[in-house]
Design goal:
256 residues; mainly alpha; Serine Threonine Protein Phosphatase 5, Tetratricopeptide repeat; 12 helices
Length: 256
C-alpha cells in the first residue's frame, strides 16, 4: 500500500470513528434530556437537547423535543419573557416541519406553540392564530388518527370558538370566511375521543368536566371531575389540575 493510500485510509477511519462518537453522544444527550423531562425538569431537559442539537441540527427527535421543552418552560417562566419562549417553541416546530413535513410531532408542536402565543395577542391576531392551530391539528389527525393530544387540542378549539364574545365572533367570521363550525357539543365529542385513546390523562377529564359545567350538565360534570381527582399524577401539572377539579367539584356538588 502506498503512503498516499495509507494516509487516506487513516483519515477515513478517524472520520468514521468521530462520527460514531458524535452519534453516541447525541443519543446520550437525548436520553439525559428525556430523563430530566420524565422528572418534570424541563430546564435541564432543554440543556441536554440543545447539546444534541449542536451535534445534529436536523435530527427529528431533537427538534421537536426542543420545541416541547420551550413550550412547557414557557408555562413556568416569568410572565415578562413567556412569549419569547413560546416563539422559540414555534421556531423549532417550524424547523421540524421543514426537514420532516409529514411529522406528527412537528405539526402538533407548532399547533401548541401557536395556541400559547395567541394568549398574548389582540383579537384579530388571536383569531388568525386559532385558524392556524386548527389547520395544524387537522394535519396531525390525518397523519395519525390515533394521536390523542390532537383531539384534546381540537376540543379546546371548539369550546373557545363556540364561546367567543360578539366582537371576536365577528372577527372570526371575517378571518375564517364564515362562522366556524364550532360547538361545545363538538368539544365534548373530541374530549371523549382523547379519553378513549388515553383514559389516564388527567387534563382530558378536567376539560370535559369544565365543558359539561358550561352546559349545566351537572351529573356528567361531577362524574368526570371525580375521575380526574382519582387518576395518578403522571405529568408536571397533574397535582395542580386535580386540585382545580376538586374545587370545581365542590362548587357544583349540590347542583341539579
Amino acid at each position: 500500500m502506498t503512503l498516499k493510500k495509507l494516509t487516506i485510509l487513516i483519515i477515513w477511519c478517524i472520520f468514521f470513528i468521530c462520527n460514531i462518537c458524535l452519534a453516541q453522544s447525541k443519543v446520550e444527550f437525548i436520553k439525559k434530556g428525556d430523563d430530566y423531562y420524565n422528572k418534570w425538569d424541563n430546564r435541564n431537559a432543554l440543556i441536554e437537547y440543545m447539546k444534541a442539537f449542536k451535534i445534529d441540527s436536523t435530527d427529528y427527535g431533537v427538534l421537536w423535543r426542543i420545541s416541547r421543552a420551550y413550550s412547557d418552560l414557557g408555562e413556568k417562566i416569568d410572565k415578562r419573557v413567556r412569549e419569547s419562549y413560546y416563539q422559540k417553541a414555534l421556531d423549532f416546530a417550524v424547523k421540524t416541519i421543514k426537514f420532516y413535513p409529514d411529522s406528527v410531532e412537528g405539526h402538533f408542536r407548532k399547533a401548541v406553540a401557536l395556541g400559547r402565543l395567541a394568549l398574548y395577542k389582540g383579537g384579530k391576531t388571536k383569531i388568525e392564530l386559532s385558524k392556524e392551530v386548527k389547520k395544524e391539528i387537522d394535519i396531525v389527525k390525518k397523519i395519525n388518527p390515533e394521536y390523542d393530544l390532537a383531539y384534546y387540542v381540537i376540543g379546546r378549539w371548539h369550546r373557545e370558538i363556540a364561546n367567543l364574545n360578539k366582537i371576536l365572533k365577528a372577527l372570526a367570521k371575517i378571518i375564517y370566511g364564515g362562522v366556524p363550525e364550532a360547538s361545545n357539543e363538538k368539544a365534548i365529542e373530541n374530549f371523549k375521543k382523547a379519553i378513549e385513546l388515553n383514559p389516564e390523562y388527567v387534563e382530558y377529564r378536567l376539560e370535559l368536566g369544565r365543558t359539561y359545567i358550561m352546559l349545566k350538565k351537572w351529573e356528567l360534570a361531577r362524574e368526570q371531575l371525580k375521575k380526574c381527582m382519582e387518576l395518578p399524577s403522571r405529568k408536571e401539572k397533574d397535582d395542580e389540575l386535580k386540585k382545580e377539579a376538586e374545587k370545581l367539584f365542590n362548587k357544583i356538588k349540590n347542583k341539579k
